[in-house]
Each structure stands twice: as structure tokens, then as C-alpha cells.
Design brief:
about 15% helix; Ubiquitin-like (UB roll); single chain; about 45% strand; three-stranded mixed sheet; mainly beta
């Protein structure tokens, strides 16, 4: 052996077909030479003969000391390294470098950079080592210049462009990737088109072709969708065929989500299937299968729907495997399962489980795969998750009408050491309000159906301009909640808070001046929630009702019982508009403060105006001091809202939505138990203090608003030029709120 420094001679001999004592066979020598090259360990190999001795001369390939990248801005080093073969300690070969070059180009292509170029370079180091540097020229992103549809007659180009996920290049999409070509997104676009046409009655719809043409300069794509719409069908007949014993077909009729005479709706058919399966299971049938059969009458352009309800295959869950959770504990994942080992298998329950795991926010991907177990009637459920970072350091800024310019800083972890416990500390510095809050929440306290948490906080509010005093609160709260079922939950809390009212203005009401000082609040509260909304974050249909009570007086300086009842009902208008962005929200609320207080406190009362009554300043509607005009709050409040949500005539990518609203509210019962006499020096010196506006006369604010779900956060703008007020009320036509994290 000659030339080998790093690789043992025995290792080289093990790759060769000829060994000591074998004859000099040229064919076997050639094959040995090729085998040594194929190992990838050697840059050069030659075989020579000295008498009866075979001399093997090798030049070893260098070892990779480090892999570096230059010129990459859109893709991080970590992402690129996960796609490479070469890494520290690996053997360098030109073929491996070329393979990695293609891999990097592929990563950029997936992000829409089809003009990216990659050049591998090596820097030679002592001891036959090299540093591999991939020089990257990213170039501009390859955006979608034009999207065209061929064969569409029922819907315009603009309407279909709103259906798909891909978008044409526009200047306002600089924070989005929807205008960058992605082959996977193209397949998703085809599915979105299919769902859209089926939802609107076109059962014969097909996407005949979806092509992406790259411009000669490789700087733009042109997408073309060729479609066949077919005729639009109405529902002529709906029938249910129940094959289950003791379950008549008519019992499932309320689960049907469309009626005879409606245009065929594929989404409504699927919702009917889901509702029937849930209904049947709730009646004690563990194995159920609902199959919708669509029989088209192409001459009359109608369809007959028949829902066949029968027993599904009897399959039980043998075992649940969880893989990929390198950080999150097994029990955190298993408690999200709606089924357990030994239960009947249900595809619907698997879908719910997957959604619940995704909603945790701990994983970048969740995949649940059923396979056959030890017998045909047993299934093994394998749940594969990919962990993602759950910690966050946030810096935010913004502005709101209530608190003015603000700075928001937070440090949080939603999955503390993989336990599922959330902890965060957050601070807000604003013109009119500053706070710091430390919060810890365990969503499964003691591994039971209990949500437990604690908050420690300090809040200072400068009400100057709204109320003539400043207020500081510092204390802690303990929380404990539980769910009765998927829709009913209750939360209990205990708070111990020291409140300080200070810097009372010299022009303030005598009622308010008497409030200056410190009080200690010891309060137990509960909130009972009934929630049937389709989404907790962006509801479109359903309703929610909440009943809350606060009991103060277990120690401390104040004694009261405060009750509240609030509800909202959401009415979708899809059926009439064909667009899910249309909807109506009906909301109402009321509250009463039963005050047998040791010391009367304005800060414990209800206030009207601002968020709960647009068109009026915060606390600007209702009872007020007859002389100073300062709001005094009240013990009884009621509010109601009618709000119409609608899309704006702009691209949906902008994230803009509109609303028209009418808010109605009233506030009363602001009398004070302690006597109040106007001070000397005032016009009414020595006379009893007077309160105006202390009645339940309704105030009304009406107007329009815009919400922008931007990358900078949610921006809300409301204009309420139409108000019905009472003397002394303080109106506010324009209301603005903005917040962001970056």
C-alpha cells in the first residue's frame, strides 16, 4: 500500500477482489480498481507490479473540516445544512459537492427563487482537510406574473383568482409568498377550484390542465388553468336509507344541511355526513358509515341525494404509537387523543385528534397513520410529530385611542421543558397605561381535566383626560378551570389586589376626590361558558353565552357581588351571498353590582363607552357629576350590538374586511351611600352634590369600520358619526387601535 495516511491498509484490502496468493488476473484487477474508486474514499487509485508484489497507490479524498455558505439571505444556514450530504467529518468528493449544489438550488426553487445559482468552492487546509464554501447568488424571486383561466363561463377571471391560493405579483405582497410559484401550491389550487365549483352546484367540473410556464429570463411564471365547468345542478330529491336496527331514517332528517330546490353544495353534503355520523354514534352505535350517493339527471340538470347509513367495519385500536417527540412528553400528546387503546376506530375522531394536536402550537407537522395490527379487526395508530421552537421573545409597538402610543415587550414559552405548561412575562409601556404581568398556566393540572394558572401583575393607568385621577393595581390571581364537555366549561379565580387612587385633579368631582387612597380587594370569581361557535378565533356561525359572578369581601376593604351575562350569536350569509366573508353578529350583555360595601368605590363600577359603546369616549356615557362632568359609573349596565361583516372591493390578500354596526347601551344607579356636600368656594357651596344622567335611557352609536389583518398585527378603525346621546355624554366619532409584534 502506498499513499494511505488516514485509511488502514486492511480496510483497503477488504474492498479489493484480489488477495495475497491470487494469480494476476487482469479482469479481477480492473474490478478491484473500480471498487476502490466506488468507495468515494480516494481521489486517485493506481495498481502496479513489482515482481510478485501488487502495489496499490492511492490518493485519499480530503476530509471536510467545515461547510459554509456565502450570499444566502432568504434561507438560513441551518435549513441549507439539513439538505446536504457533505458535513464536518465527511469525505469530500466533487460528485458529493455537485449533488449538494443541486439540492441547494432545489431549496431555493421551492421558495420561488428559480434564478438562483450555486458554486461550490474548497479551501485546502493542512492534513488533507478542506473547508467547503457554497457561494450563492440568490437573484430575485421568481414571481407569478399572470394567472389565466380557460373554459370558465359561470365565474369571471377575478372571482376564480380569489378562490385559488396563488396570486399575481403585486407590490403590496412584499410580506407574502403567495405570488411566488410553488408546484405544491399549484396542486392545492386545483383542489380549491374543485371544491369551489362543487360548492356552487357544478358536479361535472374538472380541471383539465394546470400548467406553469417559466419566462425565458427565468424571472416570472405564467399559470394557466384549463377547466370544464359543465352544467349547474339543483337538488331534486333527498333520501336517507338507514340499515341500522332500531334507527329509522326519519330520525336523521334534522342532520341534513341542504334542502330540495337548493343548488347542489358539496360542502353541505360533507357536513351532512359528519353530522349524521356524530348523531348515530351519540345513539350508541360505535361503528357507523355514512355514504352519500349522488345520482345526476343530466337532462334536467338535477341530482338525487341518497345518504346510506350502515355499519362500518368493526375495527378496534390495538396500540397508539408516538414518534418524533424529542422534547414534548408522551402524556402531553396522548391527552389530546379523543380515543384510547381498545376503543372502536373512528376516522372522524382521528381528524379531531390531529386538529387538537395542531392547535397546541408545539409541532410544525402532525401526521396520524392507521395500519393493520395483529389481526384484521385491530389497528395500530402511529402519530408522527415534528417539534418546533415554542419560546418567543417579542417586541411590539402600536397605538390605540385608549392608551395612546405603546411599547410591548414579552418573553414566553408555551411548552415549558416539554410539559405543556405555558409561562410568560410581558410588559407594556404606554402614554396612559403601563403594566408588567407574570403568568403561568398548566392546561392539565394534576393530569386531570383542570386548567390551573397564576398571574402576578402591576398595572398603572393614567386616566387623565378620561377620568381625573391615576390608578395603580398590584397583586396576584389564581385560576382553575374545567370542561364539562366540548361546549360547556367553567373557570374559577381568586384575586388579591391592592388598588391605589392618586393624583386626583383639583377640579375633580367631590365624589371622586373622596375616593383617593388605598384599598385591598379580596375577590372570588367564576365564569360559566357555553360555546357552540364554529371557531373560537374567527367565528362565523354558532353562539356563545357567558355568565360571570364576582364575590368580594373575603377579607379586604370592599364588599360586593357583581354579576354579568353576555352572549353573541353569529349568522352566516353564505347561502345568500355565496361568500363566507358575509355574516351578522348579534351580541348583548348586562351586569349588576350589588354593593354593601364597607367603603364605596367608583373603580368597582361599570362604565359605558369606548369598546362597549362605539361613538362615545371610554366611560363617557352615563351618570356624571353635574358640575365637573366627570363620569361616575353605575351599578347596572346593558349593551347590545348588531354588526354586519362584509368583504371590501379589494384583493383578499390585503387582509381588509368591513363592518357596519349599531351599538346600544345604558348605565344607571350611580348614587353614593355617603353624603356629599359641595365644598366652600364653589357656586353651589353647602348644597348636596348632584348627579345627572342617572337613568337607563339608551345611548346609540352607529357607523362603519375596517379591520386589517396585517403582518404588523390587527388594525381596527371605527367611525361612528351617528349617535343618540344624553346631556353631558362625551362622544368620540373616530376610534383607532393598532398593535404589532416583530
Amino acid at each position: 500500500m502506498d499513499g494511505n495516511r488516514r485509511i488502514e491498509a486492511g480496510t483497503i484490502r477488504s474492498y479489493m477482489l484480489v488477495q495475497a496468493g491470487d494469480p494476476f488476473d487482469q479482469d479481477r484487477l480492473d474490478r478491484s480498481l473500480k471498487t476502490l474508486y466506488a468507495t468515494g474514499l480516494f481521489q486517485d487509485v493506481s495498481l502496479g507490479r513489482q515482481g510478485d508484489t501488487l502495489i496499490v497507490h492511492v490518493v485519499e479524498n480530503p476530509l471536510v473540516s467545515r461547510v459554509a455558505f456565502e450570499g444566502n439571505h432568504e434561507v438560513t444556514d441551518e435549513v441549507l445544512r439539513t439538505n446536504l450530504q457533505l458535513r464536518a467529518g465527511a469525505v469530500y468528493t466533487p460528485d458529493a459537492a455537485e449533488t449538494d449544489r443541486h439540492a441547494i438550488v432545489g431549496v431555493y426553487a421551492a421558495k420561488g427563487y428559480y434564478d438562483a445559482s450555486v458554486t461550490p468552492q474548497i479551501i485546502r487546509l493542512p492534513d488533507n482537510r478542506v473547508t467547503v464554501v457554497f457561494e450563492i447568488s440568490e437573484g430575485p424571486s421568481t414571481d407569478i406574473a399572470k394567472i389565466s383561466f380557460v373554459g370558465n363561463h359561470a365565474f369571471s377571471q377575478d372571482r376564480l383568482s380569489e378562490v385559488i391560493d396563488s396570486r399575481e405579483e403585486r407590490w403590496w405582497r412584499f410580506l407574502s409568498t403567495s405570488d411566488q410559484y410553488n408546484p405544491e401550491r399549484l396542486d392545492y389550487d386545483k383542489e380549491l377550484l374543485r371544491r369551489f365549483y362543487l360548492k356552487n352546484g357544478y358536479t361535472d367540473f374538472e380541471v383539465l390542465n394546470a400548467s406553469a410556464e417559466l419566462a425565458p429570463d427565468r424571472k416570472a411564471f405564467f399559470l394557466t388553468f384549463t377547466v370544464h365547468e359543465g352544467a349547474r345542478y339543483k337538488v331534486a330529491k333527498i333520501s336517507i336509507n338507514s340499515q341500522l336496527r332500531n334507527l329509522p331514517s326519519d330520525a336523521l332528517r334534522p342532520d341534513v344541511k341542504l334542502e330540495v330546490g337548493d343548488w347542489y353544495d358539496g360542502d353541505a353534503v360533507q357536513r351532512t355526513v359528519d353530522a349524521m355520523e356524530d348523531d348515530v354514534r351519540s345513539r350508541g352505535y360505535a361503528f357507523v358509515n355514512v355514504r352519500p350517493r349522488v345520482d345526476p339527471d343530466r337532462q334536467n340538470h338535477t341530482v338525487a341525494l341518497n345518504f346510506e347509513v350502515g355499519e362500518g367495519p368493526r375495527v378496534y385500536i390495538e396500540r397508539i404509537n408516538i414518534v418524533g417527540n424529542t422534547r414534548t412528553e408522551d402524556k402531553v400528546i396522548r391527552r389530546q387523543f379523543t380515543l384510547a387503546e381498545g376503543d372502536p376506530f373512528s376516522a372522524e375522531q382521528m381528524r379531531k385528534t390531529k386538529q387538537q394536536l395542531q392547535d397546541l402550537g408545539y409541532f410544525s407537522s402532525v401526521d396520524i397513520t392507521p395500519t393493520q395490527g395483529s389481526a384484521p379487526d385491530k389497528a395500530i395508530i402511529t402519530t408522527k410529530v415534528a417539534e418546533k421552537a415554542t419560546g418567543s421573545l417579542t417586541f411590539g409597538g402600536g397605538y390605540s385611542t385608549d392608551v395612546g402610543p405603546l411599547l410591548d415587550v414579552g418573553l414566553g414559552e408555551t411548552n415549558l421543558v416539554g410539559s405543556g405548561i405555558a409561562a410568560n412575562i410581558n410588559g407594556i409601556l404606554a402614554t396612559k397605561q403601563s403594566s408588567i404581568d407574570l403568568s403561568v398556566t398548566d392546561p392539565y393540572f394534576l393530569d386531570r381535566n383542570l386548567v390551573a394558572g397564576t398571574d402576578v401583575f402591576v398595572i398603572q393607568t393614567n386616566y387623565l383626560g378620561t377620568e381625573p385621577y391615576n390608578e395603580r393595581r398590584e397583586g396576584f390571581a389564581l385560576r382553575l378551570g374545567y370542561e364539562f364537555n366540548d361546549h360547556l366549561r367553567q373557570t374559577w379565580s381568586y384575586s388579591l389586589v391592592q388598588r391605589d387612587v392618586f393624583d386626583v385633579a383639583t377640579t375633580a368631582s367631590v365624589f371622586i376626590a373622596s375616593q383617593e387612597g388605598t384599598t385591598l380587594l379580596s375577590q372570588v370569581g367564576q365564569v360559566l361558558t357555553l360555546d357552540y361557535r364554529d371557531s373560537k378565533s374567527d367565528p362565523h356561525s354558532g353562539y356563545i353565552a357567558q355568565f360571570g359572578t364576582d364575590f368580594a369581601g373575603l377579607g379586604g376593604d370592599v364588599d360586593y357581588v357583581r354579576t354579568s351575562l353576555n352572549g353573541a350569536y353569529y349568522i352566516p350569509l353564505d347561502k345568500f351571498t355565496g361568500n363566507s366573508d358575509w355574516g351578522i353578529k348579534l351580541a348583548a350583555g348586562t351586569g349588576y353590582l350589588f354593593n354593601e360595601d364597607k367603603q364605596e368605590q367608583i373603580i368597582d363600577r361599570f362604565f359605558l363607552g369606548g369598546d362597549n359603546l362605539r361613538g362615545f369616549e371610554t366611560g363617557g356615557a352615563g351618570p356624571h357629576d353635574a358640575i365637573s362632568g366627570d363620569p361616575l359609573g353605575g351599578r347596572f349596565i346593558y349593551t347590545s350590538t348588531i354588526e354586519l361583516h362584509y368583504p371590501l372591493p379589494v384583493s383578499p390578500d390585503l387582509g381588509l374586511s368591513g363592518r357596519a354596526f349599531v351599538d346600544v347601551g345604558g348605565l344607571m344607579d350611580s348614587s353614593f351611600k355617603t353624603a356629599c356636600i359641595e365644598p366652600s368656594g364653589s357656586t353651589f357651596a353647602g348644597q348636596p352634590c348632584r348627579i345627572e344622567g342617572d337613568d337607563a335611557t339608551p345611548r346609540l352609536g352607529a357607523g362603519i369600520g375596517i379591520s386589517w389583518h396585517s403582518s404588523f398585527g390587527l388594525i381596527n378603525i371605527d367611525l361612528a358619526p351617528f349617535v343618540i346621546k344624553q346631556p353631558g355624554d362625551q362622544t368620540q366619532i373616530f376610534r383607532f387601535g393598532f398593535g404589532t409584534q416583530f
